[in-house]
Write a structure and sequence with these properties.
The chain is built from 14 helices and 10 strands. Helix 1 (4-12) crosses helix 2, helix 3 (29-39) packs across helix 4 and helix 4 packs across helix 13 (331-359). The chain folds into 2 domains: 4-203 and 307-367, no CATH class; 204-306, no CATH class. Strands 1, 2, 3, 4, 5, 6, 7, 8, 9 and 10 form a 10-stranded mixed β-sheet that branches. It starts with a helix and ends with a helix. It has helices at 4-12, 14-26, 29-39, 50-61, 68-74, 76-79, 83-91, 95-116, 187-190, 209-217, 297-306, 309-320, 331-359, 361-367, and strands at residues 128-136, 158-164, 169-176, 198-202, 221-225, 233-234, 239-244, 247-257, 263-273, 283-288. Mean pLDDT is 85; it is low at 140-148 and 150-155. The protein is globular, with a radius of gyration of 23 Å. By secondary structure, the protein is of the alpha+beta class.
Length: 371
């Protein structure tokens, strides 16, 4: 029915066909335009559709074209507006619209992972693990000439990214047009999204009194690398819990007082490292509110080590996709490009889920190349 040419593609390059099918199913252009009309606050459609801008920029993100201008030149007559109008549309894409596109992709694609039975085994039974990390887009080539070579020059954007390792997807993103903003300044956007039964794993940048206490207040759990600036008081002395691959583990109870003066009791797991970190640290500490009866101290340390899966995701984005388009000088355009790369990453997650459902989690995660 689909023809011999399609059959040959299915036989010779099945993953390519799966990816193309996923993109056309979840993010077809008509559905994108309808979605855009619902979520956009300021921009409106006159002669240039959102789906057209999406199509042009996605060709750059997917490394089909080297730049937006190159993609535009191929479809100039079909588009019907100037390249200046295209760039004006790109630089005006609202930050919340870019974030909503990622959430839209999850709503379309996550049910497919469930249907395929391709989810990874949960790290902690009874909890939905989410890994929080920050991403800063590299300096753009289109800054003022005098600033291009300066590390302190203006950056086009920063985002907090939430990874769900069971789905293998980025399930949420919180972008900010100020590339020099502190990551923790965006935590007030993350906190309302926490749900009971979540387990949030995060590095020290997010280990703040308000976020830790707020997480517990919403019925969720956390596992955070301790930050020296997080005020806490020891309730019990450290008690030895044995050793793990990275060093000796000890545990104690601590107390953190929230902004209203209410005390919260958490566990603090200290690890004396066998080998110093890249920063020269010979010990680290992890704060968590996970129940000791279900997740002992040594398991907490192992869980924190597993959080590097999100770093692997960022490496895949940078290596296999054009996630940081340094020729886009406007923060909104650069962040939109990054979010499109997250959408592509989520699309690939469905392909990986399909393979896991057939070949098993261990085989796919260890033997199947992301490239």
């Amino acid at each position: 029915m689909l023809g011999q040419v399609f059959a040959r593609f299915m036989e010779k390059s099945p993953v390519s066909v799966m990816v193309r099918g996923m993109l056309e199913r979840a993010l077809n252009l008509e559905a994108l335009d309808a979605w855009y009309e619902q979520v956009s606050d300021k921009q409106y459609t006159r002669t240039l559709l959102f789906s057209t801008v999406y199509d042009l920029l996605s060709q750059v993100v997917f490394k089909i074209k080297p730049s937006v201008h190159a993609a535009y030149q191929e479809k100039e007559e079909e588009i019907g507006v100037s390249v200046v109008a295209v760039y004006n549309k790109l630089k005006g894409v609202e930050v919340h619209t870019a974030a909503e596109l990622v959430r839209f992709s999850v709503a379309q694609l996550a049910p497919l992972v469930h249907e395929l039975g391709g989810e990874r085994a949960t790290w902690v039974p009874g909890y939905r693990v989410k890994i929080l990390d920050g991403n800063c887009i590299e300096a753009t080539e289109h800054r003022l000439k005098e600033l291009r070579g300066l590390a302190a020059g203006a950056l086009p954007g920063k985002s907090l990214v939430v990874d769900d390792p069971a789905l293998g997807m980025v399930v949420d993103v919180f972008p900010c047009a100020d590339g020099h903003a502190q990551e923790r300044s965006l935590l007030h956007l993350v906190l309302p999204t926490l749900e009971a039964g979540d387990l949030w794993i995060e590095d020290r940048n997010f280990c703040t009194r308000d976020f830790l206490c707020g997480t517990q207040g919403r019925g969720a759990c956390f596992l955070a690398h301790e930050h020296q600036g997080c005020s806490r008081a020891a309730v019990t002395p450290l008690r030895s819990c044995g050793t793990v691959a990275t060093g000796h583990v000890a545990e104690q109870w601590i107390e953190v007082v929230d902004a209203e003066g209410q005390p919260h009791r958490f566990r603090r797991i200290a690890v004396r490292l066998k080998q110093p970190t890249r920063e020269g640290e010979d010990h680290i500490a992890i704060i968590t509110n996970l129940p000791r009866s279900r997740v002992p101290a040594k398991r907490v340390v192992e869980l924190y080590r597993q959080r590097w899966t999100i770093e692997t995701a960022f490496q895949d984005l940078e290596g296999h996709l054009h996630s940081e388009i340094n020729t886009l000088g406007y923060p909104q355009a650069a962040l939109f490009g990054f979010c499109l790369a997250l959408v592509a990453y989520n699309t690939l997650a469905v392909v990986f889920a399909a393979r896991r459902s057939v070949h098993g989690e261990e085989t796919v995660d260890q033997d199947l190349s992301g490239y």
